[in-house]
């Protein structure tokens, strides 16, 4: 019998509170969610804010998963984890305790009022590309290899977590 799951990749980020602890807890909760198998997690990276620069530095990571959930059920699961960890959606691209972005689910292309896959901004965000290239440099999304796109984008200010300042 064929494996009914599909591979996927998530972007994780936090710039409020215990950022590393919140990302670790998000991974733990994803691992505990039926229908989701957690794979490789990148290192944590300290990254400057994107979109709305009037906020603290983020910690970001990428996570490989396998999911047996349909894309909208998977989105519901990630958003439930965000709410459980204190995510409040008050300001677009604003500060957040945790952010779980579905970057890509293998074989899924969709765009509706709730979800767009692949994530429409993945190729513009160094804070996505750096950790994603660490765990899956040869991944191709929309005909673009992650490592090739990373070579074309400015990664200024992205550092391994060991040198990241406190929020």
Plain-language structure description:
The chain has four helices and ten strands; from the N terminus they run E-H-E-E-E-H-E-E-E-H-E-E-H-E. The chain is of the alpha+beta class and 167 residues long. It has a single domain (6-163), classed as Alpha-Beta Plaits (2-Layer Sandwich), CATH 3.30.70. Helix 3 crosses helix 4 (146-152). The chain has helices spanning 19-31, 71-84, 126-135, 146-152, and strands at 6-14, 36-41, 45-47, 58-67, 99-105, 110-111, 116-117, 140-141, 144-145, 159-160. The strands form three sheets. Strands 1, 2, 3, 4, 5 and 10 form a six-stranded antiparallel beta sheet that branches. It has a two-stranded antiparallel sheet with strand order 6-7. A two-stranded antiparallel ribbon has the order 8-9.
What features would you highlight for this structure?
167 residues, alpha+beta, Alpha-Beta Plaits, 6-stranded antiparallel beta sheet, two-stranded antiparallel sheet, 27% strand
The name of the CATH architecture is 2-Layer Sandwich
Number of strands: 10
Indicate the CATH topology: Alpha-Beta Plaits
Shape: globular
Our count of helices gives 4
User: What's the N-to-C terminus distance?
Assistant: 49 Å
Q: Please summarize the sheet with the most strands.
A: 6 strands, antiparallel
Question: From the alpha-carbon coordinates, what is the Rg to the nearest angstrom?
Answer: 15 Å
Helix content: 25-40%
The number of distinct structural domains comes to: 1
Strand portion: 25-35%
CATH C-level class: Alpha Beta
The overall pLDDT average reads 88
């Amino acid at each position: 019998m064929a494996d009914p799951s599909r591979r996927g990749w998530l972007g994780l980020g936090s710039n409020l509170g215990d950022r590393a602890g919140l990302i670790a807890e998000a991974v733990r909760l994803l691992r505990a969610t039926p229908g989701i198998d957690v794979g490789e997690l990148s290192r944590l990276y300290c990254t400057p804010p994107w979109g709305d620069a009037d906020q603290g530095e983020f910690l970001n990571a990428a996570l490989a998963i396998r999911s047996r959930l349909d894309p909208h059920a998977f989105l519901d699961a990630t958003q439930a984890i965000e709410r459980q960890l204190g995510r409040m959606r008050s300001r677009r691209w604003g500060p957040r305790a945790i952010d779980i972005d579905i970057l890509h689910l293998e074989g899924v292309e969709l765009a509706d009022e709730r979800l767009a896959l692949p994530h429409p901004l993945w190729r513009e965000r160094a804070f996505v590309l750096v950790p994603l290239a660490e765990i899956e440099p040869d991944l191709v999304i929309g005909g673009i290899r992650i490592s090739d796109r990373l070579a074309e984008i400015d990664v200024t200010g992205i550092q391994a977590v060991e040198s990241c300042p406190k929020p």
